Amino acid sequence: MDQLAPPFHSDIPTKRYDAIVVGGGHNGLVCAAYLAKAGKQVLVLENRHILGGAAASDEIFPGFTFSVYSYVVSLFRPHIIRELELTRHGYQVIPLECTFTPFPDGESMTRCGDPEATRHEIARFSPADAEMAPRFSLAMTQMASFIKHLIDSPAPDLASLRISELTKLLGLGRRFKALADGDKYLFTKMMTMSAVEFLNLWFESDRLIGPMSVSGIIGTFLGVRSPGTAYVLLHHYMGEIDGAFRSWGFSKGGTGGVSLACARAARSFGADIRTEAAVEKIILRQGKAIGVVVRGGHEIKSQTIISAADAHQTFFKLVGERQLDADFVQRLRRFKYRGSSAKVNLAVDRLPNFSSKPGDGPHLCGDITIAPGVEYLEKAYDDAKYGDFSKHPFLDIVIPSLTDPTVAPPGKHVISIFVQYAPYHIKEGAAQWPAKREALGDTVIDTLAEYCPNIKDSILHRQVVTPWDLEQDVGLTEGNIFQGELSLEQLGPFRPVSGWSRYQTPIDDLWMCGSCVHPGGGIMGAPGELAAKSLLKSI
Predict the structure, then answer these.
(1) Which architecture characterizes domain 337-474 according to CATH?
(2) What are the domain boundaries of the chain?
(3) Strand 42-45 relative to strand 272-274: parallel, antiparallel, unpaired?
(4) 35 and which of 40, 291, 352, 503 could share a cystine (Cβ 3.0–4.6 Å)?
(5) pTM, to two decimals
(6) Percent of the chain having pLDDT more than 70?
(7) Element (H, E) at 333
(8) Containing H/E element for 459?
(9) Do residues 214 and 369 touch, judged by C-beta distance below 8 A?
(10) Confidence of residue 488 (pLDDT cuts 50, 70, 90)
(11) For residue 94, what pLDDT band results from cuts at 50, 70 and 90?
């Protein structure tokens, strides 16, 4: 790590750079790699001691390496892997092929990569759903294929009369027109309906609809019955590994492995990367960004500044509200964050033993979903609406040490638990989260123990990460894992605000490349790639 990204020292970067990237998360590193590949002199400045931002791996307890924040990989764009030769730099994703859902009555459902086995499992609850599932997967794959053109290119500029922009809009219209009538109807429904309503068009069993609907609420402060969550469900269907949609996986060495591969690629092209380099201010002169101030007062000049931080951190903390147009400020303040997710990371001395499916097996090698039904999920959301974490939360659990033994000592394991809902804005005030942190951890473990009685006795170490911690540790405003909700009014040309969705900002020579810009969140690399390519086109 030290050789890859040494700490910042004031006497190291003395030259003037073509570009400074603020933030060493995976998007910032992807952006730096593309710029350096194009021959630009690039410096990446990361606040923390490790690279990756929310996509980082860290040895929190001796011998146990956690994907502390984000924990699975699916959305990373395949063409970025090819163009930056990331596999040569250590990028390796191990497919996650199973979803296991235990139920309170001792039943369970295991959906895996074997279509016949999955059909048999679903048929135990609904023969009709078992027959419908392959048709649903095909339809979602077709929708994902249509949408991928949108997420792999800059958002359309709806107000532009330039020929190039009008041509893009016409092309989008032609692709939509080419869809079968049924697919047009389906796409329209998907953009307006809730995840549950959309799934109800296909399925009848609550035991299938419940765990399937949770993909629609990740990164939002919405319930599975909230309008617009059907699109978020599709966003998570964009996962693609080796050309297969709806594919998820573990990065070798944790999600930090993705970030480090991006960093190695950037360095191979000549980028300079420094950790422990907290940027305190973006320097402006006559309305232009001309450099940054690093903690300690050291100034570094550059022709261009690209921020991988979210919009709030970039404009209100690094630029300053007084430097911004009042209308732009007003629109920025309307951009919603509302983080609602937490993480509990465990180091354990044995595998969990589920009452509904005892013992080891393939069901432990994928994701384990505590989402037994729609009403359960809606009640979890009710708690959050009134300013408290869910008493019975939705949990998504993975055990990466089963497929990647490098992250835990022999015979021991790491367990990653994603938690929804844990709202940033608790009724006591966000600053009171440290006092509630361990109570949240206890609730998560108690919930899991209802399905897995041996979990409490197996725990060696526990780490609880609240939305407040996400804000404090990695600079995610209000703890939103996507740098802003993926609600419909905050997508495409409206992300983060209308008129400024194409990576440029009202400050000359200041650009954005984080998840707060199109196409949004997840470990996908697309915001970093598209920002770099847009910048290079503008030169």
Answers:
(1) 2-Layer Sandwich (3.30)
(2) 17-55+75-92+252-335+496-538, 111-244, 337-474
(3) parallel
(4) 40
(5) 0.93
(6) 92
(7) helix 326-334
(8) strand 459-465
(9) yes
(10) confident
(11) confident
Which pair of structure tokens corresponds to residue 227? 């309008």
| Helical residues (DSSP H) of 238-325, grouped into ranges | 256-268, 311-312
The tokens describing 179, both together, are 């869809």
Tell me if 303 sits within 8 A of 472, measured CB to CB: no
Q: What is the pLDDT of residue 11?
A: 57
pLDDT at 455 over 50: yes
Least confident of 44-48, 90-94, 257-261, 302-306: 90-94
Residue ranges with strand state E in 164-314 = 240-241, 244-245, 248-251, 272-274, 279-285, 288-294, 298-307
CA-based torsion, 115, 116, 122, 127: positive or negative: positive
Per-residue pLDDT, 132: 96
Extract the tokens encoding 20: 């400074």
Other CB atoms within 10 Å distance of the CB of residue 286: 6
| Angstrom distance (rounded) from CA 45 to CA 24 | 6
CATH class of segment(s) 17-55+75-92+252-335+496-538 = alpha beta
Chain-wide mean pLDDT for the chain? 91
